[in-house]
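Need tokens for this chain, all 194 residues.
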Amino acid sequence: MRIVHRALALCVVAAVGAASSPAATNEPTHSASKGAPLILEKDEGERRVWRPVEGLEGQPGLFILKVDPQNGGSSQLVLGTEDLPPGGKIIRHRHPGSDEILLLQNGRATVSLGERVREVHGGATIFIPASTWVAVTNTGTDAIHAVFIFSAPGFEEFMRAESALEGQKLLALSKAEDAEIVKRHAHAVIYEAP
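Here are the structure tokens for all 194 residues:
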């Protein structure tokens, strides 16, 4: 899920985690051959910041990867959180290899899903079958807290390629670097041509 130029992996709660593990850090929690139980507070998990892309609007924003192959060792799903600021947009895109669910915890948004456009409010659930075009615009006055869930891993690697761990220096991506990352991860996300 970047404000104007990235699929915002929307965000919020998600309490999932390891009772025996110490407090979550920015570092991924790698597991052996099977999943590792996790218990995570709202702000815990792999905290990352989108890198800006030269010449594109939007400010870098924070997202949290909570469960995926690197965090908890899930081989079958990805869960994370992100905030969409007022006026923020998830530009039109689709995920060819997995279904997605967005849970909007608060606020108001316009959602374009396939051929449908609808105004939704806090508590909305958006089910996005694989290869379905989706776009979201925050039309309210508050940041929307959202949770994103993918039925298969893939998109989280694109998110990592376009971001840095929170606290690391944020180096801007050139348009060429951004295009190469998008091309390399076309199995997980395709953006509508401008």
